[in-house]
Amino acid sequence: MGTLTIMVVVALFLAAIVLGGYNKNFLERVKGSTVWDWMTTVDHKKIGIMYFMSGIVFFLIGGLEAILIRLQLMVPANDLFVGDIYNQILTMHGTTMIFLAAMPLLFGLMNVIVPLQIGARDVAFPFLNSLGFWFFTAGGIILNLSWFFGGAPDAGWTSYVSLALNEYSPGPGVDYYVLGLQISGIGSLISGINFLATIINMRTPGMTLLRMPLFTWTTFVASALLLFAMPALTVGLLLLMFDRLFGANFFDYTMGGSSVLWEHLFWIFGHPEVYIVILPAFGILSEIISTFSKKRLFGYTSMVFATVLIGFLGFMVWVHHMFTVGLGPVSNSIFAVATMAIGVPTGIKVFNWLFTMWGGEIRFTTAMLWAVGFIPTFVVGGMTGVMLAVPPADFQYHDSYFVVAHFHYVLVGGTVFGIFAAAFYWWPKMFGKMLHEGLGKFQFWTFFIGFHLTFFPQHFLGLFGMPRRVFTYQANVGLESINMLSTIGVIGMTLGTLAFGINIYRSLFIDKTKAPADPWNGRTLEWAISSPPPEYNFAQLPLVRGYDALWVEKEAGKKELTPAEPLGSIHMPSSSYLPLVMAIGVFISGMGFIARGDYSMGIFGLIILGIAMFMRSFEVDHGYHIEPEEIEKDKGVDA
Amino acid sequence: MASDAHTNTNHASNHLETATLEGKNKVLGFWLFLAAEVVLFACLFGTYLALKSQTMSGPTSMELFDLNLVIVATALLLTSSLTSVFAMSAMNQRKLKLMQFWLGVTVFLGLAFLILEIYEFVHYIHLGHTFMSSAFGSAFYALVGTHGAHVTFGIIWISSLMIQAQKRGINTDTAPKLFVSSLYWHFIDVVWVFIFSLVYLLGKVG
């Protein structure tokens, strides 16, 4: 409690210094400040930007951890990071990249773009949107505080028991994993519900399901996966927390528990999770390839069908992570066949992208380069995926670098390439500025070549017998030169990432030119409004008259969308500081439980959460209205 | 929220909870949340079924469970679901007092159920069946306890909504809240039906 009081006092003190002294106007100045505006915002575009930016920060942290891993493995018998420290870096690299980098980067894009693509003024639950973001942030901070207070989790990103139980993982490391992921996971679930409700209920007139852009469709399916997959992780983490903190015996076999149970719960969540991060990337690809080939997406309906099918099959393949557990030939075979079946809809997608480009008027912008680089890279990852899906072969590949190479091909070659493509494509819409194309192309080539140099050799490392997760290997067993090559490739990816950083800095702080509303000759609704869009998005909700809604209007020779309603007063939700308060509550609670021994802080945090929930429930807030005169004024400025 | 056109579409229907777009969103979002809750409880059920025979020489489910007590608890909870339907029907007829009465009965029955459950847990602990005694114990308390926690939350939630309804009356703002809380209450009830069959009845046949 003392620490907390000190922190609150320091925070107030700092705020007072920044805002010029503490006097009776202090609170008003706080409320007028930009920081307060962003902390309390319920605007989906601002929340999206915050998601995206925190994703980049965590991507850099996770990347740094990757560099350290490759440095340790550069030469045999290296002693840079030995044992425990290596385990912590490895665990945090995986956990950070999946939960704190890939997901928020995608959530950021979804938040900004999906409401615009379906012609909505906002998401269905602006308040919950903000709550989801702050929960994610609280969880991410808890996870990373572990480096400074007691050591990071070190049981792998899968945190298998019995390794993750108290007996083999003493210290708070795994507690940080359990509580940090629990909190950020609740945030993700909230976001998933929000996207689903938004896409179902908030579409503009004429935006039928089969006119929705592919990115909206993949967001929809990925959110459905979130909805059904996240609770399995919630339960898994809850049980692990009970085992570690409260002496339960779910996973302790000496008391009748089962370690296979954790593996099931984890992978029932874990496998849909990889589709959660890859499906939106598929959607991004579809948008970009169609736009820069100046063609309607080839096989739109089959793309939608393939997306839904991948989402559906994604729930019945989790045992392919557990082939070597010994569940028996029948269950292994069923899950093997289901896994291979996913190759079919994925193949449909790849061919559709190729046929979209076929005969198109292709422009190789940076976004398009990433998209084109994505295809062969992802195909390699997909093919090794089918190899891994064969149980007898999997017994050879299991826990080797072959698996590491496979999932980096799909997660970096798929998700990360997709996110970079989307960053270049939608940056003007998010920030109203352009990213530099030259720097972007430099980034693409360095990152692309570096990536393949790092991970292609790892297939062979695995086949030659190098196990994953180990911190060293012997000399003279044929692994040195491949490992060295793999580490050299990191230089390329590092240069690429630095170039991206410089590009962001340039666009936000140096470049003064504003981005046009439609820099790429776009086909979907988001390009019909200014960059960045006004807070109400559409002055008049548009009437959608076909797939590629904006392109339909362009082909009809029109410059603007057909409105579906007369100009009128627009209702907006008001900002709220309660999501932040709730997130601070769970943050305090999480840290309190990690501290163990005395749970008063843990309970205190939950009380803050409860009070904030009551305040929200009893609050009467009808938002505010933007009148037509103000909208007209905005329009004048834009033209 | 998007336009007034949305607000006015449902004049003919007397379903106050979906009369506005916010209301529609809230109801849809809550159904989605319940879908997530289904998976959550499914995982807990799976865990329980996997671990239920691991009693580690502690009392088994055959020895522990007293069906008479559980049947009374079940009757209380199922009746509370019925009374919450009455409350919703009263809400859609704009009868505040009647709705408050039925909500009150719902909360009262929920409380009675909760007291029986607490009594049951205390009784088991005396018999040596605790959260820490075996994997069976952990799984039992995790599943039934999570349900109990949901009941507790429901009681607090519905009570606070009763206060709001008293203050503000039944309108397009309070109706969706009341409606989703009743959805939640039915959901708890359905989960209990599964607990009754998969935990208690199955526990009695071995």
Automatic annotation (TrEMBL), chain B:
Keyword check for Disulfide bond: no
One of the Pfam families matching this protein, by short name: COX3
Similarity section: Belongs to the cytochrome c oxidase subunit 3 family.
Species, as recorded: Polycladospora coralii
Keyword set, alphabetical order: Cell membrane, Membrane, Transmembrane, Transmembrane helix
CC terms in the record's Gene Ontology section: plasma membrane
InterPro entries: Cyt_c/ubiquinol_Oxase_su3 (IPR024791), Cyt_c_oxidase-like_su3 (IPR000298), Cyt_c_oxidase_su3-like_sf (IPR035973), Cyt_c_oxidase_su3_a-hlx (IPR013833), Ubiquinol_oxase_su3_dom (IPR033946)
One BP term from GO: aerobic electron transport chain
Compartment(s) of residence: Cell membrane
GO molecular function, a single term: cytochrome-c oxidase activity
Record field: transmembrane: 28-49, 69-89, 101-119, 139-163, 183-203
Membrane topology: Multi-pass membrane protein
Protein name from the UniProt record: Cytochrome (Ubi)quinol oxidase subunit III
Annotated ranges, domain Heme-copper oxidase subunit III family profile: 28-204
Predominant location: membrane
